[in-house]
User: Fold Redox-sensitive transcriptional activator SoxR from Dyella japonica DSM 16301.
Amino acid sequence: MTQGAKHGLPTTLGVGEVARRSGVAVSTLHFYETKGLIRSERTVGNQRRYARAVLRRVSFIRVAQRVGISLADIATALAALPPGEAPSRRDWTRLSAQWRAELDERMAQLKKLRDTLDDCIGCGCLSIDRCRLRNPGDRLASEGAGPRRLLVKQRP
Amino acid sequence: MTQGAKHGLPTTLGVGEVARRSGVAVSTLHFYETKGLIRSERTVGNQRRYARAVLRRVSFIRVAQRVGISLADIATALAALPPGEAPSRRDWTRLSAQWRAELDERMAQLKKLRDTLDDCIGCGCLSIDRCRLRNPGDRLASEGAGPRRLLVKQRP
DNA sequence: CTAGGACCTCAAGCTAACTTGAGGTCAAGA
DNA sequence: TCTTGACCTCAAGTTAGCTTGAGGTCCTAG
Assistant:
């Protein structure tokens, strides 16, 4: 074990420790660091030391990715927070508000996708085009591009 | 317009028409076809003709992608349906059941992500590690890999 | 003091999901 | 008939998000 974690909690974590605890590869942590998603201090011997908060940050990144948010967007959001410690209440409120909208939108899409499936059981509208979700007469064709029935909002 | 769509509805659509209506590029439709996500008939002149149902299929693909599902997974799901027309009730039930689980899981993750943000307003736990979501004493460290607080379920 | 596991950097490689480009065909109006 | 725009194929290029490998350093137990 790297730095005396035998008794009590170490104040910082080595890269291997973070990898093990967060479930991502060491190379991924390096990669995230180059992208500015996380950051570290260095020991005299040039080894990375992470604040414990990095674990939560990594969790956040992974979960956000999982629901389809790009690292670039995640980075932008996280950049709103001071990289070191203690974000202000204002920082949090801003980040939360931004993401609220994004997440709510994705939730709506997921819900729609799921409900579509539910509605279609026993109907087969996806391929036979005949159920209550059907687009009658294809009237929407002139309303611009994009999947209009399922899509809640397309990004620019 | 390609095939007499002036009056009434054409029974099939050209690739450009599908692109315009679905909001994806022609090249993307070609690509999806090579991946087996959609399929087409050909005219004597070797041009693609799509059944109208392809529009719904493309919508489905895009929305599923948007919430983080890979084309491979989408292909697998869609492969459960007969490529041509009229899936049976059994087909639909199977597809729906599979996706229900997947979608519910992602919904749960999104919700958790969103709620975490909500809870953290004015607290800053993401980086100062001090709020009701805090991981006390880091006790979870030995429970295996992965972000345990936010993550609902990791894929293998 | 020395072995070996944990770290370091940097460059190159890989997969998914498309896009772009070259070179050629099809089809419908002037 | 000629032309023009929609279409075709196939190969190569692009971006995101990592992983792998080579070659070298750090540090802790024995």
